[in-house]
Amino acid sequence: MNYQHQYVDGTRTHLPLGKVVCIGRNYAEHAKELDNPIPSEPLLFIKPGSCVVALDGGFKIPAERGAVHYEAEIAVLLGKSLSPAPTEEEVLDAISGFAPALDLTLRDLQSQLKDKGLPWERAKCFDGACVLTPFVLGSSFEDLADIGIRLTINGQVRQDGNSALMLNPIVPMIQHMASQFSLQAGDVILTGTPAGVGPLSAGDTLVLELPGVSRFEGAVR
């Protein structure tokens, strides 16, 4: 499979995709490890499609801008646009595929911006800040509350989570997102990261998995 394209239901979606809609602090242990409070409502932010890169062939990080942290996440690809108040059935019908992905963060810059009470898009939206792998069909999972996500770096498992631990489950999360702004075919949803985030370095080798379903290898160039 060519990583330069995501094949879903026999169609081809070229990178960059649509926008990438993200949720922060969706795993309690991750919020705890960064000493962040658990949000009282979903904490949403958006990455532009221009920041999406493929894992295949390796990817670059802007190490000259401080620590670049990995955050492994379950990515959801929407194959259909959603209304502002979609039903559960409409959300499930719109989901085309799932993939393991990386949300990359300039952690030093993010901390500086947060300390000043400023938006932290600069820490989340740089070129290459969303690393995607090919998607498997949405029908690959019977239970969206039991999807694993695992990241191994240099042979050591760093993150090993499951959607069962999400504070905001996948379908209600997407329903909430759709109530805030338009979700369109080609958009990608990043569903939050489990505990175990940390810095990347040039030369690191990575394995991203939805255990038992898909597994992809790459490296930091």
Question: Can you characterise this structure?
Answer:
This protein is of the alpha+beta class and 221 residues long. It has one domain: Fumarylacetoacetate hydrolase, domain 2. The protein is 17% helix and 35% strand. The protein has five helices and 17 strands. Strands 3, 4, 5, 7, 8, 10, 11 and 14 form an eight-stranded mixed β-sheet that branches. Strands 13-12-16-17 form a four-stranded antiparallel β-sheet, with no helix packed on it. Keywords: Hydrolase, Metal-binding. GO terms for molecular function: acetylpyruvate hydrolase activity; metal ion binding. It comes from Pseudomonas brassicae. Belongs to the hydratase/decarboxylase family. It holds the Pfam family FAA_hydrolase.
State the main characteristics.
single chain, 221 residues, alpha+beta, Fumarylacetoacetate hydrolase, domain 2, eight-stranded mixed sheet, four-stranded antiparallel sheet, 5 helices, globular, disordered N terminus
Summarize the structure.
The protein is α+β, with helices and mostly antiparallel strands and 221 residues long. 17% of the residues lie in helices and 35% in strands.
CATH class: Alpha Beta
Distance between the termini: 21 Å
Structural class: alpha+beta
Number of strands: 17
Q: Mind telling me the C-alpha Rg?
A: 16 Å
Summarize the amount of helix as a percent range. 10-25%
Report the CATH superfamily: Fumarylacetoacetase-like, C-terminal domain
- Overall structural domain count: 1
In the CATH hierarchy, the architecture is Alpha-Beta Complex
